Amino acid sequence: MEDGKSWRVLVINPGSTSTKIGLFEGEYSVFEKTVDHDAAELAAFPGISDQLPYRRTTIMEALAENGVDLLSIDAFVGRGGGLLPLVGGTYAIDETILDHARRGANGVQHPAQLGSQIAHELAVEAGGKPAFVVNPPDTDELCDEARMTGVEGVYRHVHLHALNLKETAIRHAASLGRAYDECNFVVCHIGGGISVSAHDHGRMADGNDIVGGEGPMTPTRCGSMPVAEVLNYLEGGHSLDEARALTLKRGGFVSLCGTSDAREVIVRAAAGDASARRAWDAMTYQVCKWIGSMACVLGGKVDGILLGGGMVHSDELVRAIEERCGWIAPVTAYPGEFELEAMAAGACRVLDGVEQPLTYSGMPVWTGFSN
Fold first, then answer.
1. Residue 4: its pLDDT value, please?
2. What does the alpha-carbon distance between residue 13 and residue 23 come to, in Å, rounded to a whole number?
3. What is residue 72's DSSP assignment?
4. Cβ atoms < 10 Å from Cβ of 314
5. Which residues belong to CATH 3.30.420.40 in the chain?
6. How far is CA 21 from CA 15, 40, 67, 138, 153, in A?
């Protein structure tokens, strides 16, 4: 790092109906903004990548409103959607990343694909500045045992809130005066989706597949269920599409309480609504059960249980997890998320020379067992 230099990093995190942007100088936020998009305007675009000019224009308008000159920015970071499973880290955006992001090589069409594309375009416009993606959504560092199921040819895959999980762990390790790769943590993201993960000396060795319907129930997801009960559900006249919807958008609190708003559920539970209380307590119980399973992955050698995500603003939730899991390791709450900060921090670690930028191979990190 240059003496006294605080890198100016612009981060871009596109979501379904908004784009979050932030400008950081080192670890400090200069400004952050959520640019909302009209759903009808987005629906007019035939594909995700077709939204790029529209979203880029709204970002440039936000930068202009805040008096930000692109030439003053040292690096650009975009959310790395559309990529194939890869080891976590900070990747330099290249033509392979852009190609996979444009077409959604992982088979998931999500606005996060636009992150790397917009970051690349702005970096070029700024005079060829560096552009990165950090711990993309398909970060996969599973140990071999975690990939196995009891069916030949069927394997577990992982989809987690890798960006926030890893940043939470990195920050907590620093608070202990240690490096991330010197520690073992169970790290949770508890929000609209719930990830519970085991971090073994800097490697996210196991966790639940939130896209695959695995893990605790969430406000919109049913979570893990016995296979026999799923079969009974289908044989009872429900369609495959209905079953898939339960794994992503119509399960959990939506199915049990008729709402996806966790704040409403906890208010109703506190007011004596029995169904809301059962749903909230069951979700909390399942989170704790998964924390216990991740502690076993780490052989019981756990330096901390870390909680992030929007629901961690609930003192009741944090207390419940402390009561059930505090015997494993100290529980520390980090309410909310560090996604924008995590993206900027990844770029700064590379610019400082603390980490080397990785190159995306374009191949899945795991393609099967050799024998």
1. 47
2. 12
3. G
4. 18
5. 8-141+340-351, 162-336
6. 11, 22, 14, 21, 41
Q: What is the DSSP letter of 243?
A: H
Write down the pLDDT at residue 249.
87
pLDDT of 3: 47
The identity of residue 332, as a single letter, is T
- List pLDDT tens digits, range 124-173: 999 999 999 999 989 999 999 999 999 999 999 888 999 999 999 999 99
What superfamily would CATH give domain 8-141+340-351?
Answer: ATPase, nucleotide binding domain (3.30.420.40)
Q: How far apart are CA 137 and CA 81, in angstroms?
A: 6
Instruction: Give the C-alpha separation, 361 to 359, whole Å.
Output: 6
Asked if 24 and 344 touch (Cβ cutoff 8 Å), the reply is: yes
Q: Under DSSP, is residue 293 helix (H, G, I), strand (E, B) or coil? A: helix
Q: Quote the distance between the C-alpha of residue 1 and its chain's center.
A: 29
* H or E stretch at 260: none
Superfamily of domain 162-336: ATPase, nucleotide binding domain (3.30.420.40)
**Which residues is 304 bridged to in the sheet?**
185
Average pLDDT along the chain, 371 residues, taken 10 residues at a time: 74 92 94 90 92 95 95 97 96 98 92 96 98 95 96 92 96 97 98 95 96 93 96 96 92 96 96 98 98 98 97 97 98 94 96 96 94 80
Phi/psi of residue 303, nearest 5 degrees: -85, -15
CB-based contacts of 119: which residues, under 8 Å, 6+ apart? 10, 12, 76, 77, 78, 93, 131, 132, 133
Centre a 10 Å sphere on the Cβ of residue 30 and count the other Cβ atoms it contains.
13
The pLDDT of residue 1 is: 42
Q: How many residues does the chain have?
A: 371
Owner of token pair 């942007």: 21
Question: Looking at this protein, which amino acid is placed at residue 351?
Answer: L
End-to-end, the C-alpha distance of the chain in Å comes to 46
